[in-house]
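Figure 6 in text form: structure in, sequence out.
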């Protein structure tokens, strides 16, 4: 290799190494102990409640068919987490075991798919609820 080229090559190696260490240092900073908790991808207030309001609440509130038959009150976080008179419908962090997802995905008996006798929720809405459960089903 002639001189100028090898100097250039050495320079390039030095620059790359410096960049590598800088990125590593930045990474360590964000990986530190006092890193803020990860921002949730789905929240109860923004992703779940509007769906319950629009698609479920008319039946799942006192005096209406869904609530009277199952005891499930979908007007609030507390109501959703309490579940039906037979028990909880949401298992935090485990959407696959949550009966709520079973009904919403249409994997249950057609007679009890929800919303009752109406169009299934969009994939988008169902995935947002699934994500919210996966992230801990928090009152957020
Ligand atoms: C048109 C009225 C109606 C709507 C709308 C409706 N439900 Fe229901 N829901 C019912 C009735 C009636 C029952 C009880 C009888 C049954 O299980 O079929 C019920 C039962 C349930 C149950 C309990 C099932 C079980 O295994 O005991 C869940 C969970 C549920 N609904 C969730 C929802 C959700 C979530 C929505 C909105 C996406 C919704 N429902 C919308 C009428 C409704």
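Output sequence:
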């Amino acid at each position: 290799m002639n001189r100028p080229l090898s100097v250039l090559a050495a320079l390039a190696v030095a620059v790359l190494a410096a960049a590598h260490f800088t990125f590593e240092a930045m990474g360590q900073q964000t990986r530190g102990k006092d890193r803020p908790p990860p921002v949730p991808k789905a929240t109860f207030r923004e992703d779940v409640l509007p769906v319950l309001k629009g698609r479920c609440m008319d039946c799942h509130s006192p005096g209406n068919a869904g609530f009277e038959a199952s005891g499930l009150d979908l007007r609030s976080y507390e109501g959703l987490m309490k579940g039906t008179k037979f028990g909880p419908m949401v298992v935090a962090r485990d959407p696959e075991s949550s009966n709520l997802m079973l009904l919403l995905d249409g994997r249950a008996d057609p007679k009890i798919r929800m919303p009752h006798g109406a169009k299934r929720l969009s994939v988008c809405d169902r995935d947002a609820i699934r994500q919210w459960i996966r992230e801990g089903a928090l009152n957020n």
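Caption detail: The chain has a mean pLDDT of 86.
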